[in-house]
Write a structure and sequence with these properties.
- By secondary structure, the chain is mainly alpha-helical.
- The chain has a domain of 78 residues: Arc Repressor Mutant, subunit A.
- The chain is built from five helices and three strands.
- The termini are far apart.
């Protein structure tokens, strides 16, 4: 039996690539902490680095990953780099997770029904 693989559209591939970048960025605790700081408002890279006790270069590398995922924007003013949170891309990650939340909620509801019926 010869089965043809499903055709993946460019739109689907682009969305999946974007999700990969977002989840990769969120997989690191330092990057999540940087996003939490930026959720309070835009900040300079030097200010973002301060609580971590690491080099500006290390923070810049983390910020580059967040920028690539579209989660952070950077504005350069001379030698000063200003960063801001861009939360919109996280909505697609939230939608993807929500689909599985519905899946597990339905499974747990079924399990509750089963247990309740068995106890009667």
């Amino acid at each position: 039996m010869n089965v043809k693989p499903k055709t993946v559209t460019t739109t689907t591939t682009n969305r999946d690539d974007q999700l990969d970048l977002i989840f990769h960025a969120l997989a690191n605790r330092t990057r999540r902490a940087l996003l939490a700081l930026l959720a309070k408002g835009p900040s300079r890279v030097t200010d973002l680095a301060e609580p971590f006790g690491v080099s500006l270069n290390a923070i810049s590398k983390h910020l580059a990953v967040l920028e690539k995922a579209g989660l952070v924007s950077r504005r350069i003013d001379g030698r000063v780099h200003h960063c801001a949170l861009v939360a919109d891309p996280m909505a697609s990650a939230g939608e993807w997770i929500a689909a599985y939340e519905r899946f597990w909620s339905a499974r747990l509801d079924s399990f509750v029904d089963y247990v309740e019926n068995e106890m009667d």
